[in-house]
Specification:
It is a single chain. The protein is mainly alpha-helical and 273 residues long. It folds into 2 domains: 145 residues, no CATH class; 95 residues, Cd81 Antigen, Extracellular Domain, Chain: A. The chain is built from 6 helices and no strands. α3 runs antiparallel to α6. The radius of gyration is 26 Å and the shape is elongated. The protein starts with 14 loop residues before the first helix and ends with a helix. Belongs to the tetraspanin (TM4SF) family. Keywords: Disulfide bond, Membrane, Transmembrane, Transmembrane helix. Its main location: membrane.
């Protein structure tokens, strides 16, 4: 007697796909929570919540950036993690929408960069951002730590076009010597080249380096951060684009995985109705 084969009208939910989405999004969820907590703590430490008017450029405030990144990562990770674990199609749909919106934003930024990179707009924005950091260097510890990291650890540079740009800061302006500023005609310690024998960075190494008659060998970075940033991008442009494309690829892959899981859950539910 021939065996009659029936087509399976329903699909089983893949445990492998379900827990892969759950584990990856839980990691994203926890990471977002840590970043969000760090941003809130930083804002609370400088009493920014009750003094928002004192923040000159909100977009450039490192603590605010951490809060935004942490919130987005937390929301995406939460919807994907809980949605996969609980097999909640509503949360999984929300996760797909959020990731798709993020993809659109990333693609838009990429297109903007390609269109505007030769028109000077990006350079002008970077210049304005660095100028704001220099002017408010002593007013916001987060911005101070950020520009110190840019100058000393990342780009090994000083100022926008060079050390003279620190004249924009009231403490480092050469005329500030009249009011007793010890840092007048100097630069922050992060502009100084690290010496091979130096175990602890000398915080006063930038004093007086822009005064007339100071030795030619000033032991500070002469290259501006704008040019240093351009050179960094030129040197690492291939690596940056590979990283961006891999990030987009994994986001698209997770959207496909999540949509397949969502379809399987819907098919499984319809089996019992």
């Amino acid at each position: 007697m021939p065996v009659r084969k029936y087509r399976n009208e329903t699909r089983e939910v893949s445990c492998c796909m379900k827990y892969l989405i759950f584990v990856c999004n839980t990691a994203l969820w926890m990471t977002g929570l840590v970043i969000l907590a760090a941003g809130i703590w930083a804002w609370n430490e400088k009493d920014a919540f009750s003094n928002l008017n004192k923040i000159t450029l909100l977009v450039l405030d490192p603590a605010f950036v951490l809060i935004c990144i942490g919130s987005v990562a937390f929301l995406i990770g939460f919807t994907g993690s809980v949605g996969a674990l609980r097999e909640n199609t509503c949360l999984l749909g929300t996760f797909i929408i959020l990731v798709c919106v993020l993809l659109v934003v990333e693609v838009c930024f990429g297109i903007m960069y390609l269109v505007l990179k030769d028109k000077g707009w990006i350079k002008d924005q970077a210049t304005e951002g660095l100028r704001a950091f220099i002017i408010h260097y002593r007013e916001d510890p987060d911005q101070q730590n950020l520009i110190d990291w840019i100058q000393e650890d990342w780009l090994q540079c000083c100022g926008i076009e060079g050390p003279k740009d620190w004249d924009s800061n009231n403490y480092f302006n050469c005329s500030s010597s009249a009011i007793g500023s010890r840092e007048a005609c100097g630069v922050p310690f992060s502009c100084c080249r690290r010496q091979t024998h130096e175990l602890i960075k000398n915080k006063q190494c930038g004093y007086d380096v822009r005064k007339e008659g100071y030795p030619v060998d000033r032991h500070i970075y002469e290259r501006g951060c704008l040019r240093a940033g351009e050179e960094y991008l030129e040197m690492h442009i291939v690596s940056i684009w590979i990283y961006i494309m891999l990030t987009i690829f994994w986001q698209i892959l997770f959207v496909i995985f999540t949509q397949n899981l969502r379809s399987d859950i819907n098919a499984q539910k319809s089996k019992w109705h």
